[in-house]
Amino acid sequence: MPHRRILSLWFPRLGAERLLRQARGTIDAPFAVIADSGTMQVIHSLSGIAESAGLRVGQPLRDAMAICPALITRLRNEQAEAAFLQSLRRWAGKYSPWVAEQGSASLIVDLTGCAHLFGGEPALLDQLHEDCTGLELTLCAGIADTLGAAWALARYAGADLPVTRSGDAIDQEAHATRSRAAKRRHWERGGPTPMVTTGAIHPHDIAPKMVHPNIALPGQTRQALAKLPVAALRLEPGVAAELTRLGLRRIEDLANQPRAPLARRFGRMMVRRLDQALGVEPEPVSPAPPPFRFAVRLTLPDPVGLESDLLAALDRLLPPLGTRLEKKGRGARRVRMQCFRSDNTMQAVEVGLARPSHDPDRIRPLLAMRIGDIDAGFGIDMIRIEAVQTEPLTDAHRGHAGAANSARARVVNGAAMDDLIGRLGARIGLEQITRRHPADSHLPEKSTLVLAAAWSDPAPAWRTAARSASAVPRPLMIWPPEPVAAPDMTPHRSAPPAGFRWRRRDFDTCAQAGPERIAPEWWLDDPAWRSGVRDYWRVTTVQGDRLWLFFAHGATMSPGWFCHGSFG
């Protein structure tokens, strides 16, 4: 069986070069793509000219403009970059059918059994660079037995170690200090004597022949990674900086250390990344599944910016989108409307539906509510609507009659409520609209489950479940127990106090009903029920409030009266 061979393709200037390709040579100046990071804008991608001017990725835009006033910038379009990377994934399919995306600017290709079709791995790399030169893209590639090693070679092969002057590493000391320290280590402190070089070379000391600096020969992964910096292991920047500060700057320095102390100090992920790169722990390549898209678009001859124009575009695009969904038996749960402006920027709005649907009349009102959030800028020249999340319209196959009856019942009984939930969700978010289901608990605050209304059905047996859970009424509003100040706080009270103070108000009791004794769930340690057994009373006050009070007999807490809810 042939060795598993992995190819890593990294496009370090993908964002900038994508826009430069669209400019078709009209931009001959330092160019950068910027992105929002908190309250400031930072550089996301740079052209080769901008990097030569001393700019770097992650640099604040204000600092970059101070260094290079002639810098030309464009805003980042994440979706356009993702679509461009998908196009490159299809292009990479000419070298192997097993291609996967990794991050926002990298591809992983399983080359096992494919390199000989291109004349070997060095010839394949030459072909890759030739193709990318024609595509006006910068490419860094690496081939190894493991995914982690190929990733490291693509980014760090031939690069110098980062200079981190911490003063802890011995090679950062003065020459005289280093020589004295080496002498003391060997002679004065009982170390082994220095090796005497006689001119003879042992066969095992000969380094493996490298056919290409970015290619690790089969079985030579450890030797190829030995001189690379520890950042090549896909570590967090903070972990890599701390390892460098301690003098563990190369992968060979890290591989020779005991694993248990490393895992305790830097976490198991650091050791796992090392094992993945060396092939000790497998790391599969998962190719992307074929796209399953439901999208329509409208290209306009002239830019538009009126709300009536966008509404007319909805009327034009939603019917064909609904037809495509209906043919596949699916309904849209989330719909995204993208408006591409004439300055190569894009603004999108997204709405969700309480139930999957392909009916344009149910989707259009939700998008129409969000059109006011779109800034047309200098004009919109293309509109795209996509059902980004779809679901089958029927959960299971129940025959034509059963499916028809289910659909008819859903339309008759739930369409109005679903439309209402969708309209409210378009304004405040679908996650903010909830409904309650009965729960299997006798405790008042645990007797209901709070579920998202858009992703749950009404409980058919709610009244039956509520009646079986408790024969006495429950308050409409329940909150965490709040202490009640009563004149007589002695335990084992047989009735609520005649007068009490709660929420800075004085109340006088005129009627009460109870008690209802509720015991805690002894098999669970609930901090809210450490007060022990509770006796609940329905209290009507002279002031008109109908409260739900209980007397806690005390277990690990002091006894007393508390208010737990209100009957309205």
What would you say this structure looks like, in words?
The chain is α+β, with helices and mostly antiparallel strands and 568 residues long. The protein has 16 helices and 19 strands. The strands form 5 sheets. The chain has a 6-stranded antiparallel β-sheet, with no helix packed on it. A 4-stranded antiparallel β-sheet has the order 5-6-1-7, sandwiched between helices. Helix 6 (147-156) crosses helix 12, helix 13 (307-327) packs antiparallel against helix 14 (360-370) and helix 14 (360-370) packs parallel to helix 15. The model is unreliable at 184-191, 193-210 and 465-469 (pLDDT under 50).
List the main descriptive attributes of the protein structure presented here.
six-stranded antiparallel beta sheet, alpha+beta, extended, 16 helices, 568 residues
CA gyration radius, whole angstroms: 34 Å
Order of strands in the sheet with the most strands?
Answer: 14-19-18-17-16-15
Task: Flag low-confidence runs.
Answer: 184-191, 193-210, 465-469
User: Helix share of residues?
Assistant: 25-40%
**Largest sheet properties:** 6 strands, antiparallel
Give the overall shape, derived from the CA principal axes: extended
Q: Give the number of helices.
A: 16
Mean pLDDT: 80
How many β strands by DSSP?
19
**Strand share of the residues?**
15-25%
Task: Please report the distance between the alpha carbons of the first and last residues.
Answer: 75 Å
